[in-house]
Amino acid sequence: MPELPEVESLADFLRAHAVGQTVASVEVVAFQALKTVDPPVTALGGLTVTGVARHGKFLDLDCDGLHFVTHLARGGWLRWRDDLSAAKPVRPGKGPLAVRVRLAPGDDGRQPGFELTEAGTQKRLAVYVVGDPAEVPGVASLGPDPLAPDFTPDRLKAIVSGNRTQIKGLLRDQKVIAGIGNAYSDEVLHAAKMSPFKIASSLTDAQIADLHEAIVTTLQDAVERSRGLAAKDLKSEKKSGLRVHGRTGEPCDVCGDTIREVSFADSSLQYCPTCQTGGKPLADRRLSKLLK
Where in this chain does the record put each Formamidopyrimidine-DNA glycosylase catalytic domain (predicted)? Predict the structure, then answer.
């Protein structure tokens, strides 16, 4: 799933390649992806892309005041095309293509643009056309952005105080902190040397300061690693930069211990016992049930 660093990098890529361009057309192939009807998606035709922003994991193209907002969900991605002039219309339900945005042809006759695709059977990619991004329910309910100047240790302390949620779940809750998902919550907790099962309200002031530093540094470093990369290269860059997430069974880069995993119904987390849990493996409840 694209998280804050990847969405920020996609936004940066589109600022360089789409801003100033005129939208020629928007083709919706996966009709379930379009979540709004008024204004219609056809209203974007002829408008100029004047800005690109990120709201948590949402990508926002400002087209002369009308906003094309998308959430890529778990299996979604954005593919930039230098020339879509020869691209043929695609029949709904065929392949991973969900939305195609064509920009006006340049002087060389090529028509740039991008496609939103979604792999897998769970189709959750969402597209909205709105006058204000706050009209998108997911955007309106977002918590603070962890890379914003006002996301301070005191702000984080106010978030965790009295909260009996496990810290892993709290970091992933978009209504609490915007933009962090399964992968970067693992990375943040490894950097903070903190168990994913630790209760948020039990954090000391020193641990809150360490967690805040880990959040900001981990995300900023990931954004910087991705800066300037083409959209097609962002997935592989993300994977290569992860230290614990997706690395079950591999040695920890910090201490050499074996990275372990806890599985859930539809996801899993990875952690280092030596770095994060005092050497004690966490109970994998799903595995325990299978062994009974």
Answer: 2-93
pLDDT band at 244 (very low <50, low <70, confident <90, very high): very high
Average pLDDT over the chain reads 92
Architecture of domain 4-140: Alpha-Beta Barrel (3.20)
Per-residue pLDDT tens over the stretch 20-48: 999 999 999 999 999 999 999 999 999 99
Instruction: Count Cβ neighbours within 10 Å for each residue of 254-278 and write b for 16 or more, e otherwise.
Output: eeeeebbbbeeeeebbbbbbbbbbe
What is the residue type of 271? Y
Angstrom distance (rounded) from CA 134 to CA 127: 14
Predicted structure pTM score: 0.92
Residues of the chain with CATH 3.20.190.10: 4-140
Sign of CA dihedral 73, 69, 118, 5: negative
Residue from 34, 120, 121 nearest 71 by CA: 34
What backbone phi and psi angles, to 5 degrees, belong to 258? -80, 130
The token duo for 202 is 């039990």
CA quadruple 158, 161, 165, 171: dihedral sign: positive
If phi > 0 it is left, if psi is from -120 to 50 it is alpha, else beta; for residue 117 that is: beta
Residues of the chain with CATH 1.10.8.50: 153-291
CATH number for region 153-291: 1.10.8.50
Terminal CA-to-CA distance of the chain, rounded, Å? 33
User: Which one, of 71, 49, 78, lies nearest residue 62 by Cα?
Assistant: 49
Identify the three-state secondary structure at position 240: helix
Q: Which residues pair with 18 in a beta bridge?
A: none
Question: Is the pLDDT assigned to residue 98 strictly greater than 70?
Answer: yes
